[in-house]
Amino acid sequence: MGTSHIYPGAYSLNAYITIDGCSDAIEFYKKAFGATEKGRLLMPDGKIGHAEIDIEGTLLMMADENADWGTKGPLSLGGNPMSFGLYVKDADAAFQKAIDAGGTSVMAVDDMFYGDRVGQVMDPFGFKWMIATHKEDMSYEEMQRRFDKMLCE
């Protein structure tokens, strides 16, 4: 059986939120909603660069605010605290279709360290869409290794 075009545990469309205090939010979601933490990738300063939780069988992805990446949570001023993650069979074709429909390229489609092929499009309404095709399964340890390498380049 080959690797699916959708990341394990994800759906075709997934929420990805930015939070000031992501670690505290994860603990709250565990308490409030019975969330299960699937994993997290830490930045060199200890903040969360990426985390995943499962709530009632639904994947929710999140990260701490990061000024270098231009991300802010809803309690901060400015910015959009949310991105949609859409898994498709062909990220390149879906990205181009979104551009053709009136979206604006935020990031060209490329292979990412975490095993997905991803491009980012801003729709005309101010929402960012990360359009992805999953290509490679790996452990969080391998993702962290690749994440660390990417941050040092």
Describe it for me?
By secondary structure, this protein is of the alpha+beta class. It has helices spanning 22-33, 91-100, 140-152, and strands spanning 13-19, 36-42, 48-55, 58-64, 82-87, 104-111, 116-122, 128-134. Strands 2-3-4-1-5-8-7-6 form an eight-stranded mixed β-sheet, with helices on both faces. A hairpin with a 5-residue loop joins strand 2 and strand 3 (48-55). The longest helix has 13 residues, at 140-152.
Sheet-strand content, in percent, reads 35-45%
> Which percent bin holds the helix content?
10-25%
Average pLDDT confidence is: 89
How many H/I helices? Answer: 3
How many β-strands, per DSSP? Answer: 8
Run of helices and strands: EHEEEEHEEEH
Radius of gyration in whole Å, from Cα? Answer: 15 Å
* Residue runs with pLDDT of under 50 for 5 or more positions: none
Strand line-up in the sheet with most strands: 2-3-4-1-5-8-7-6
Distance between the termini: 34 Å
Global morphology:
globular
Secondary-structure-based class equals alpha+beta
* Largest sheet composition: 8 strands, mixed
InterPro entries: Glyas_Bleomycin-R_OHBP_Dase, Glyas_Fos-R_dOase_dom, VOC_core
Pfam families: Glyoxalase (PF00903)
Domain VOC: 9-134
Organism: Flavobacterium granuli
